[in-house]
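User: Okay, second chain of the day. Same drill as before: sequence in, structure tokens out.
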Amino acid sequence: MSKIQLFFHHVFRFIWNGIFILSYPILASFGLLFIGLTFLFSNLSQLLTHLKPDSKSGVVVETAWETLPNSNDLLESKVEKQILFGPVGVRLRRKDGVPTVLSEHVFGKKVRLIEKGYILEKWNTLESTALPDFDICLYDPEMDSIRFLTQISCFDWHLAEEKDNELVFKWFDGTQGGERIVHL
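Assistant: Same drill. Structure tokens below.
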């Protein structure tokens, strides 16, 4: 190295070391301040956890039977499975106390009353990974029978049209949609 290069090398090394020596206490104090704040809030969180009243966490709460909306005050529902950010699977029974085939299956809360009975969403599984997998069925309260109408694999469906002996269901799964025509 030439004397000029060596001179600039020593000057820049001296400046770099000076910057590092002067800024190190500032950087270290911010680090210690961050660790202290983390410790403080952790202890505050533990203190607040001990102050709250004891609650039974992880215990399944027994739900009561509730009248199912749109069922003309005939059906009651009891929650069987709640999917996070999704629909609720319920057990159904008749409000008048008559034993029914409904108690053998799990249904969604969508109920549509038509002239020939109730349109129900019968779940085929309770596994969250396998949903949506359900059948659209017609429940006849007079005969106490469930009749399979069609299978739809999405949660967003509705009864679009009701003609003489024909039902038109429309569905949309987020990317595509369609319709199913069912003859009664």
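The first helix runs from residue 3 to 51.

User: Thanks, on to the next one.
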